[in-house]
Amino acid sequence: MHPRAGSLARPEDLIDVQEVVSAYYDLEPDVSDPNQRVVFGTSGHRGSSLDAAFNEAHIVAITQAIIEYRASQGIDGPLYIGRDTHALSAPAWRTALEVLTAAEVDVMVDSRESYTPTPAVSLAILNANGAPAALRTTGPGLADGIVVTPSHNPPRDGGFKYNPPHGGPADSDATSWIAARANEILESGWRSVKRSLGSDLMEHHCVHRFGYQTNYVDQLASIIDIDAIRDAKIRIGADPLGGASVDYWAAIAERYDLDLTVVNPNVDPTWSFMTLDWDGKIRMDCSSPSAMASLRTAMTPDASGETPYDIATGNDADSDRHGIVTPDGLMNPNHYLAVAIGYLLTHRPGWSDEVAIGKTLVSSSLIDQIVAAQERRLIEVPVGFKYFVSGLLSGEVGFGGEESAGASFLRKDGTVWTTDKDGIILALLASEILAVTGRTPSQLHEEQVARFGASAYARIDAPATKEQKARLAALSPEDVTATELAGEPITGKLVRAPGNDAPIGGLKVVTDDAWFAARPSGTEDVYKIYAESFRGEEHLAEVQEAAREVVADALG
Q1: How is the chain split among helix, strand and coil, in percent rounded to 5?
Q2: Which end of the chain has fewer CB atoms < 10 Å from its terminal CB, N or C?
Q3: Rounded to an integer, what distance in angstroms lies between the CA atom of residue 517 and that of residue 363?
Q4: How far apart are CA 473 and CA 263, in angstroms?
Q5: Does residue 89 carry a catalytic annotation?
Q6: How far is Cα 111 from Cα 209, in angstroms, rounded to an integer?
Q7: DSSP string for residues in 489-539
Q8: What is the pLDDT of residues 498-550, one digit of tens each?
Q9: Is 45 within 8 Å of 62 (Cβ atoms)?
Q10: Judging by DSSP bridges, how do beta strands 488-489 and 484-485 pair with one another?
Q11: What count of Cα atoms within 13 Å lies in the side-chain half-sphere of residue 272?
Q12: CATH class (in words) of the domain with range 11-214
């Protein structure tokens, strides 16, 4: 933990915005350096212009590759594009627009010429393609999209991700093709890509204005019981953390007459108002106690024991993540996911009795118990929201959630809402839960603990070389020779997810009361160890230590 974690950023912590933006145009990547090539992770291509990892050349090449990919799939409808508040998002958005319009792609830009949350783009794509009706994902007339965002990453970073016609994150087949083609374009000469240049770009005949905010806000009553929130007079404090949801929260308050305060309406590409995250960096991680220190302080009770809000919430820069603060404090993401799932399974009569719940295999096992108690089916998948897309689209999966505070769920009638993570609806759901049950999500979590037991959960990183990371991603169950984990017999060794048989890119080891999962990092020379124990913090520490030993032995 950094000594200043949770404290307000100082001038020396802030980026020089002009330097970051200038580097976007001035630096050209060296394609022989793996760190400067196009690499699509679970949420698109990310990097910093200062490291020659997110520059004009990358965006030209990626956008051209997307144009060629959508053509190969027969996709010729409009492309919906949004951006967040990072300093690199606006220049990358414009570069993409230059390439798209030169290729005669009809582009739907925000009618307010402002920021657009990821879920608003996903919703717009699905609406354009006829969802919640049956949806084709290839062929003429279909729309797709691009979101220019590095999500919760530090201010120096940029990000760029592609959402196909299903509205969610592109799968690995698409991203692998796009990344490979983009790198070919970088190598062969990205400057030869056609672009529409000039100050009149917004007047190009392929540029069309779309009301993302109105489209999104007007449909919220189909997924959240807004009437219950308003009638119960729930006092909401919403902190956009300087991100794309800033104007959306104000519009939600006005549209539905809610007692909702936008705690911090400021947008600043340096994020000077943020408190430092655990490692001393500015990071808009709304699930982090350090990054959410200001909102946690704002919820401090006064002398009479009263808090200014009944529920306070945070979102990251593109609003696909959520953080929930009650008078008891910031909720652990796993705890809130378990509460949200338990509530939705008992308060959505329009959902089919056959609807399943999706979770990543590094999420809490408390979710397994909640779902089993409701006699519902659990679908456990690898890390990556893309694995929930088809289930949400078809209505087979009622809720898909990740341990990193990202989730989405179905409308009240059991049809698809978004197929990408939506931090706004998860934040509003916390107020609905309080309005309907009379108890905060943290109080409901304590009831779950009383019934199912308390779990200790944590994620740590351990050093690993590139060769070790490659071996970890390719492990088989037979590579694990241990028979016990922290004093308990091992009951499962997984390298494929039980929900869809997809490779997890690592290893999960399970006992009756605990488990750990180890996955290589896609960006750093470390591997991540996720672990949980239902026998307390001390046993969790034993599980973590044993996990290091098991992985070390398996890697040789």
Answers
A1: 35, 20, 45
A2: C
A3: 10
A4: 42
A5: no
A6: 5
A7: E--EEEEE-TTT--EEEEEEEE-SSEEEEEEE-SSSSEEEEEEEESS-HHH
A8: 999 999 999 999 999 999 999 987 666 778 899 999 999 999 999 999 999 99
A9: yes
A10: antiparallel
A11: 9
A12: alpha beta
Closest CA relative to residue 118, chosen from 284, 267, 318: 318
Beta bridge partners of residue 238, listed in sequence order: 262, 313
Provide the pLDDT confidence category of residue 328 given band limits of 50, 70 and 90.
very high
In the sheet that 397-402 helps form, which strands lie side by side, from edge to edge? Answer: 378-381, 356-360, 397-402, 406-409
Q: What is the pLDDT of residues 286-321, one digit of tens each?
A: 999 999 999 999 999 989 989 999 999 999 999 999
- 128: closest CA among 171, 75, 186, 174? 75
Within 10 angstroms of residue 453's Cβ, the number of other Cβ atoms is: 13
456-555: which CATH number, 3.40.1370.10, 3.30.365.10, 1.10.3720.10, 3.30.310.50? Answer: 3.30.310.50
**Structure token digits, residue 62:** 């990626």
CATH 3.40.120.10 domain locations along the chain:
11-214
Strand 107-110 vs strand 207-210: parallel, antiparallel, or unpaired? parallel
Mention every residue, 6+ apart, whose C-beta is less than 8 A from residue 189. none
Q: Which of 151, 442, 455, 533 is catalytic?
A: 151
Contact 42, 522 (CB under 8 A): yes
